[in-house]
Amino acid sequence: MGDVIDGKALSLVVKEDVKRQVAELEKCFGRKPCLAVILVGDDAASRTYVGNKLKAATYTGMDTLFIELPTNVTERVLLDKIVELNKNSAIDGILVQLPLPKNINEATIIDAVSPEKDVDGFHPKNVAGLWLEKDCIIPCTPAGIIRIIESVGCDLNGKNALVVGRSNIVGKPVAKLLMDRNATVAIAHSHTVNLGSLCRMADVLVVAVGKEGLIDGTMIKPGAVVIDVGMNRNVSGKLCGDVDFESVKPIASWITPVPGGVGPMTIAMLMNNVLHCFQLCNQKGN
Ligand code: GUN
Question: Does 269 sit in the ligand 1 pocket, CB within 6 Å?
Fold first, then answer.
C-alpha cells in the first residue's frame, strides 16, 4: 500500500528555510528580496496561481510588486515594462505568468527577462545552463519534483525513470535533473507506442501531460514512486491529476496527491529561486 507524499508539509519546510534566509539577507543588505509578478489578462486559473505565488512571497517576508496588464496590451508595452524591471535594482526576480494572450509572442517575452532575474528558469541562458551543468536558475516544478523524490529517501542512482510529457517547463528539464542523479531516463509523449509497458518498467514515474486518468494501477511497477504533475478539472469541476490515484496508490510505494502534491512545492521552489536571483544580482553588483 503506497504512502501519500504531503507536498504541502514539505513546501512549508522549504518556505520556512527561505523565510530564515530572507531575514538574514535583510540584515546583511539592508533590504529584502523583491519578486515582481506580471499578470496579463483575466484568466481565472492564472489569477489564482499568481495570487498563491504572491501570498507565499509575503509569507517568507519578501517584498512583492504585482503588475496587472489588460488582455489587449501590446507586446511593446509588456516588453517596455520588463526592460524597466530588468534595470530596477530593487527588483530581484521577475515572473511573467503564462500563458499570454495570442497577440503576444511568449518566446520574445521570455527572452526579454534578464537571465539573472528569471525566477522561472525559462530564459534560453538558464535552459542552456541546466543542460551544460552551469550555475543557473532551475525551473520550479522540476526542482520541486526532485526535492519530493529525495524527501522519501529514494536514491535515483541506477533507477529506471519514465517522464510522461515533453514540455519545456516540466518534462524536458525534469528528465535532465533525473539524469544528473544517475537515473536511466526515458521520455514518453503523445506518439509513444504502448505507454503501459514503458510505465511498468519505471521505478520512478513522473506524469506531466494534462490528461485526467491517463495512468492507472495496471500501468504501475509495484513499489514505484509516482509523481503526478497534472492539474485537471474533472466533470464535477474537482481538481485532479493525470494519475488515477485510487487504483495507483495500492501498487506504488509513494504517490503525490492532486491537489497538495507538486503544486505547493512548485511555489516553494519559486521562493528559493528568488533567493538565488538575489544572490546573482548582488554578485554582479547590480
Ligand atoms: N503557467 C503555468 N505554469 C507556469 C510557471 O511555472 N511559470 C509561469 N510564469 N507561468 C506558468
Answer: no
